[in-house]
Specification:
The complex is a heterodimer of chains A (245) and B (205). Helices cover 31% and strands 24% of the residues of chain A. With 245 residues, chain A is α/β, with parallel strands linked by helices. Chain A has a domain of 158 residues: Rossmann fold. In chain A, helix 3 runs parallel beside helix 5. Chain A is globular, with a radius of gyration of 18 Å. With 205 residues, chain B is mainly alpha-helical. The chains are: A alpha/beta (245), B mainly alpha (205). Chains A and B meet through helix 2 and helix 3 of A and helix 8 and helix 9 of B.
Amino acid sequence: MSEIRFESVGHRYGDRIVLQDIDLALTEGKVGVVGANGSGKSTLARTINGLVTPTAGRVTVDGLSPAGHGREVRRKVGFVFTDPDTQIVMPTVAEDVAFSLRRSGLGKAEIARRVSEILCRMGLSDYADHPAHLLSGGQKQLLALAAVLVREPAVVVADEPTTLLDLRNARRIAAILATLPQQVIAVTHDLTLLETFDRVIVLDAGRVVADSAPGEALRQYRALCDDTGDDTRENTYDAAEPAHG
Amino acid sequence: MADASHAPAGLYWPGSSVLHRLPAAVKLLGLLAGVIAIALIPRWWQLAIAAAGVALLFAAARIPLRVAWSQLRPLRYLIPVVAALQIYLAGWHTAVTVCGTIVLAVALAALVTLTTRVTAMLDALSAVLRPLRRVGVDPDRIALLLATTIRCIPLVAGIVAEVTEARKARGLGFSIRALGAPVVIRSLRAADALGESLAARGADD
């Protein structure tokens, strides 16, 4: 597994502090990140592949900083967003997956083979020539995941990948993430997704407040929500959440 | 199977016809030549022969009639206006010729997009623009720009539909400001997210 290190990482949007004093070394296969809306978990995830550059400290993936080695880090780290609609670039399913390999240097035949293989794995083979924007929400998220996995990244970072999905599709995505050979860092409100994970980190107001095996971490997270009277509900989506909170 | 009858223009219709298998660059050159030829046709009956030729091409590509119609349907607002103007300014003969030229040119362009994958189109464009690398133009970036433009059509259409539904659900009447402001804000957010997604997928690497 890769080693993702956060060294005294902090980040602020203007005057608003979203991350502070984060020191972590993630080497486990499956790591979950939970926290209330605005707790900084999405920002934390985005620092891993350089979508957000922290205003303090340093993030490295296998010793490489996204700031200095953006291309290498993005090759290692695939990112699955909450809303697959904004992750789809090309008109048809197969073309969208192939788009991920556009600058890979692979030949057309190899690209076609890899696309076909990953679509088969995701159960999307019958939709290869289907307009991507006409897929169901669950299929779109599977497509987004396929577009990430076809690049064969060492790490998959997923930012609330099941939030917009119904229970059936959420379970399907969760099952796929849980069985990936890659290292998975999942930011989520879906606590059942994390039950089989190796490690869960709880964020509150930009700080790590719990970091342990899922049972203990989720117990602390539930207690934290009870204490603070937080109105966060599991499996809900707050569209008004500030950017990358 | 793709349902192009409910999709915006620019959608690939899967198939294995000769037209589908032709290289994108050949089809684009053919389109250019075809449109120029149609624009030079002086008489309406010659246009009718050209129309029959275009219809044959659609049949050869096995494009269903409803799909072909879905590509031409957006013209139903433009053609009456152009026809009225031409009849008023130059007479019915010119009106038929001008309107026929527009319809046939759009039909030919639609035929190319229906039988060509966007990726093939982008590869052809990148190849054509490659010499411009010497003057600092990145052909792949221009191809990516076109791809995202095509992608944004259904994305923005979806946003407009959602905002319209939300307005109706709240019992509000039509208002450009009530429609425009949320559509613009949500489109900008979507553009931001699309940019992040492109960066995460290594589009700029």
